[in-house]
Amino acid sequence: LKDLGEDGIYACGTVNSNRKHLPKLSPDKSMKRGETAFSVSDGKLCCLNWKDKRTVHLLTNFHDPTEEVEVNRKEKDGTITKVKCPGALQDYNKNMNFADKFDQMKGQYALDRKSHKWWHRIFFHLLDCCVVNAFI
User: PiggyBac transposable element-derived protein domain: which residues (predicted)?
Assistant: First the structure.
């Protein structure tokens, strides 16, 4: 993400907590719901931890880590409460829907055929992508 940011390509995404070279932030178990911990390296790359029901680990190269918004969350008893959430995570959730929708539709309308030739598999994958993109 750091290299992408230097090239002017802004990106944001989730990452596994056991990934190499991630900064050590506060442990997941010590965080309460709605708490955020973050670390910024080189003034560009930001690693965010946010606790909801589970901890979400997010990397971004263009969001402000101090920006917070309130989101609605449903409790176990069915009541809705407002929880503080980083703006980066809200933006990620808003835009990630399209990638999930693409994967879901690609699975439903797959033209994939079994073949011993490697290029057939690539051809059918690209054809699937074209069909789904034409539909979206």
Answer: 2-135
Q: Please give the Cα distance from 47 to 65 (Å, whole number).
A: 8
Residues in the chain: 136
Q: What does the block give as tokens for 15?
A: 């990452």
Residue with tokens 């054809």: 127
pTM score, two decimals?
A: 0.70
Residues 6+ positions from 10 with CB-CB distance below 8 Å = 4, 61, 62
pLDDT of residue 136: 63
116 by Cβ neighbours in 10 Å (0-12 / 13-18 / 19+) ranks as: exposed
What value does the mean pLDDT of the chain take? 86
Q: Alpha helices, DSSP H only, in the chain? A: 2-6, 87-108, 118-135
Q: How many CA atoms lie within 13 A of 81 on its CB side?
A: 10
Please report, as a single letter, which amino acid is at residue 115.
S
Distance CA 119, CA 86 (A): 43
